[in-house]
Specification:
Elements lengths: L2 E6 L5 E6 L5 H13 L9 H4 L19
Antiparallel strand pairs: 1-2
């Protein structure tokens, strides 16, 4: 499940936490929000940021060999 969590501090700082989005696509999801919020002071990538998407193929290759024995 993809979630965006925002903590707004009394001094106006906003902490944003993204979970459930694998790879760099989280930056695409949050770009418009961050542009409206203002200056981004830091980024701390999570393990999900560095994870690779797993793609499974539905193709199965089989090969049958016959021996001359």
């Amino acid at each position: 499940m993809e979630t965006l969590e925002f903590i707004i501090y009394p001094d106006g700082r906003v902490q944003e936490k993204v979970t459930g989005i694998v790879g760099n696509s989280c930056a695409e999801v949050t770009a418009a929000i961050e542009a409206q919020l203002g200056l981004v002071l830091s980024h701390e990538p999570t393990s999900e940021f560095f994870a690779a998407k797993v793609q499974q193929s539905g193709v199965v290759n089989t090969q049958t060999a016959y021996s001359d024995w």
